[in-house]
Amino acid sequence: QVQLVESGGGLVQAGGSLRLSCVASGSIFNINAMGWYRQAPGKQRELVAKITTTGSTNYADSVKGRFTISRDNAKNTVYLQMNNLKPEDTAVYYCNAVITTTYIGNYWGQGTQVTVSS
């Protein structure tokens, strides 16, 4: 059984910062790519940022230069530092990870709300 638990969401004014964390736990053999997605009301879930086991990253164009994804492999944790937040960043943010247990599975966290006021 694998769980992803996010934390760090909340309400912030435009221009502010938040840091999201996501910890993976359970019978984990290896964690491959990890990432953050978001879903705003009435919109599809979209990729925000991804990071590989070796630290290679990619970002959505809308967050480049403002968001930074990182991971601590020893702690099975992925982070998303969000700076200069904008009202259009308001969404539920979901952690995602490809994890090897007895098989390779794609796992999601429960989501954390980020609200940016103007």
Description of the molecule:
A hairpin with a 6-residue loop joins strand 4 and strand 5. The strands form 2 sheets. Strands 2, 4, 5, 6, 9, 10 and 11 form a 7-stranded mixed β-sheet that branches. This protein has a 4-stranded antiparallel β-sheet with strand order 1-3-8-7, with no helix packed on it. The mean pLDDT is 97. It is mostly beta strands and 118 residues long. It is built from no helices and 11 strands. The chain is globular.
Low-confidence stretches: none
Number of helices: 0
Distance between the termini: 41 Å
Major sheet size, sense and barrel closure: 7 strands, mixed
Question: What integer value in Å does the Rg equal?
Answer: 14 Å
Shape: globular
Percentage of residues in DSSP E strands: over 45%
Q: Oligomeric form of this entry?
A: single chain
> What is the helix/strand order?
EEEEEEEEEEE
Mean pLDDT: 97
- Bin the helical content: under 10%
Structural class: mainly beta
Number of strands: 11
Please provide a brief summary of the model:
The protein has 118 residues and is mainly beta. It contains no helices and eleven strands.
